[in-house]
């Protein structure tokens, strides 16, 4: 979008987490990093310099965190960047922040944002990190219950040639979910009216079923499909996200996180872990509303990020040991572990 540019090629860049020898010291230099990470930092600096050259920018860098300081220092001393800063006409402040300092933000569910939900729950477009597959079967005469149907090519979110779709995507990113869904209905009604499709405008709350009934009007009209293909892909992404089981789980996550923020303190950590314990169920015991192993890992990352440093004591260690046992058993019982669990094991 106009305000946000993602650089997925740099997605793997992460400071090594503290090992048994203790945390990574604040004054890490590039030379102290492993060879692979050194190469990644140089690649980031080269990419950023290319981006700033294209924008005609001379930057003033600020860094929060050990790895960010290394990146900022490398960028400051990079030969090509020094030349660019002498000639560039625009000024910008650049703030680097270590991702490890904001893990709670990355795994939390506080955003009431449709774009975030779509990107979280729909399957990734193969070969892409920042786009998703939108099932397009609804728009065809081929009606199949098979969700993995691969005869029809998937749709996606990137619609650079469709002004209505671009405008709708901006509202998915910038408005609250309820308003964004209303925008989806408005765009759909306008498109149907332009194509003289028999649309009945209804007021009140927008439901995925209502959006779906509007989409069906386009199904047998090839000209209308072609004219509004980008918009239809975004609205289908909305419908599929709102109906997705993970979306209803989103509210459970949010409720748990709020409860956690209210109750958490050093003394309460064992009792919070004991509350979690009965919720960890193996594959055979789980219903669709229960948390998966991945969900628990996300919750645990959130809990420990919010609490920060905890003094080890017997009650905490006992509670942690029980959670570990239950999680290991659940992970071992997974018939088809998702990629993240495969990586961990």
UniProtKB/TrEMBL annotation:
GO terms for biological process: vesicle-mediated transport. InterPro entries: Sec1-like (IPR001619). This is SCFD2 protein. It comes from Nycticryphes semicollaris. The gene is Scfd2_0.
